[in-house]
Design goal:
By secondary structure, the chain is mostly helical. It has 6 helices and no strands. α2 runs antiparallel to α3, α4 packs antiparallel against α5 and α4 runs parallel beside α6. The longest helix is centred in the C-terminal third of the chain and has 26 residues. It is globular, with a radius of gyration of 16 Å. The termini are far apart. The relative contact order is 0.11.
C-alpha cells in the first residue's frame, strides 16, 4: 500500500522534500480519518508514513510554517495511532509524540494546537494510569 504511493510520490516530486512531505500528509490524513477502525496493518502503514514524514521534514533546509504545521499534525497523528493500540507501552510512546507536538505548536504560536496536544497528553496519561492500575491490581 505505501510502496506504490511512495514510488508515485518520489517520481512526482524528486528532490523536493517539502512537496513530498505534503503528499505524505495527504496520505496519512486519509488513513488517520479511520483511526477508530484501524486494522493492525493500517496502523503499521500509518506509523511508517509518519516516520518517513519526520525524516523528510528534517531534510528541508529552511522549514516554513506550512511544513511545521504538517510536522505538528504528524506528531499528533502518530500519537493517536499509538494511543489507539490500547497498551501501556503504546500510551507512553503516544505521550512522547504529543509532547513533540506541543513543542512544534508553541514554535508556530498556534494556541489551539498547543491546547489540543496538551489535552492529548492528559488522555494518554489517563489511559496509561488506568492500564497501570489494572495491571497492579492483579
Amino acid at each position: 500500500m505505501a510502496t506504490e504511493f511512495e514510488k508515485f510520490m518520489y517520481a512526482k516530486y524528486p528532490g523536493d522534500p517539502a512537496m513530498q512531505l505534503e503528499a505524505m500528509n495527504l496520505k496519512i490524513v486519509v488513513i488517520f480519518v479511520s483511526k477508530l477502525f484501524m486494522t493492525k496493518e493500517q496502523r503499521k502503514v500509518a506509523k511508517k508514513i509518519a516516520k518517513k514524514m519526520i525524516a523528510t521534514f528534517n531534510r528541508i533546509p529552511f522549514p516554513t510554517d506550512p511544513s511545521l504545521h504538517i510536522l505538528s499534525y504528524t506528531y499528533n497523528a502518530l500519537g493517536e495511532v499509538y494511543l489507539s493500540e490500547s497498551t501501556k507501552e503504546s500510551a507512553e510512546i503516544a505521550i512522547e509524540y504529543f509532547e513533540k507536538d506541543v513543542e512544534v505548536s508553541k514554535q508556530l504560536g498556534d494556541a489551539v494546537s498547543v491546547d489540543t496536544a496538551e489535552r492529548n497528553i492528559v488522555r494518554g496519561k489517563a489511559f496509561f494510569e488506568r492500564n497501570n492500575m489494572f495491571i497492579n491490581s492483579n
